[in-house]
Amino acid sequence: MKEIKTTLTNNNLHPVKSLGQNFLFDQNIIKKIANVVNIENKNILEIGTGLGHLTKSLTTKAKKVVTIEIDKKLIPYLNEEFKEINNVKIINQDFLKVDLATLIKNEFAGDDQVIVIANLPYYLTSPIILKLLENITFFSAFVLMMQKEVSQRLNAKVNTKAYSNLSVMCQFYCQLKVVFDVKPQSFFPAPKVTSSVVLFQVNDEVKLENAKEFWSFVRSCFANKRKTLVNNLTKYLTKQEANDLMEQLNWSPTIRAENLTFVMFHELFLQVKSK
Questions:
Q1: 161 close to 51: Cβ distance less than 8 angstroms
Q2: What is the three-class DSSP state of 185?
Q3: How many other β-carbons are positioned within 10 Å of the β-carbon of residue 40?
């Protein structure tokens, strides 16, 4: 930790709370993250360069690393740190505003097996994962560090309180595995919670017709988890139509979104869409 504090002081830098910056400095954890999947001669997209500790580890094996950092104050330091490393490109941009199709085409020659590696800001975990899933055809795997509680929600099973629209989406597109936990002491500043590193292996078959419309529909079914599915469907149907549909599907009128599997959501979507 002393080394990272010295680096920050010498370069007139500091962690920005509003950006959710917790700099990972534990070299053992960094090596473990870099070894979760085989990145030898692979193209890597890193979200959140930070001080570049993980980035450096990735460049020793990867074909190319494109790393996106939102904090413009870190860029001069990073450019100096990586000036002798020729298989890395640092982009100063907000990942959520990046056109991924253009980036993949320009930086990775259209490679559709890019691996994403990131220590995610806690407050942006869901939006970032959602963006990755919406662009799933470009990727073969994600290795993402996030708050442990969030990793448990993404892995949540049907009929549990933690089950959500993001659980359904993640589990349709990927095989998820929590690889290991990371203690707060591995970061500066130390967060108040334990983190988990999660491997998302992209499934071979991820094509879904009307995907954007379908996932919007699933989100609306979870809009108010205390309400029954019938009540959440009033965006699309009258209450009587929703009740009639439950009877037609032979589902309980009190069924909730957390009780539906992906197959059930898809069946419901097609039924609603046909009305």
A1: no
A2: helix
A3: 8
Q: Whole-angstrom Cα distance, residue 154 to residue 264?
A: 19
Alpha-carbon torsion (214, 219, 220, 225), positive or negative: positive
CA distances from 61 to 75, 84, 209, 239 (A): 23, 16, 37, 57
The number of residues in the chain equals 275
Number of CB atoms found within 10 A of residue 121's CB: 19
pLDDT tens digits, residue range 222-274?
A: 998 889 999 999 999 999 999 999 999 999 999 999 999 999 999 999 999 98
Residues 6+ apart with CB under 8 A from 217: 236, 265, 269, 272
Share of the chain above pLDDT 70, in %: 100
Task: State which H helix or E strand residue 68 sits in.
Answer: strand 64-69
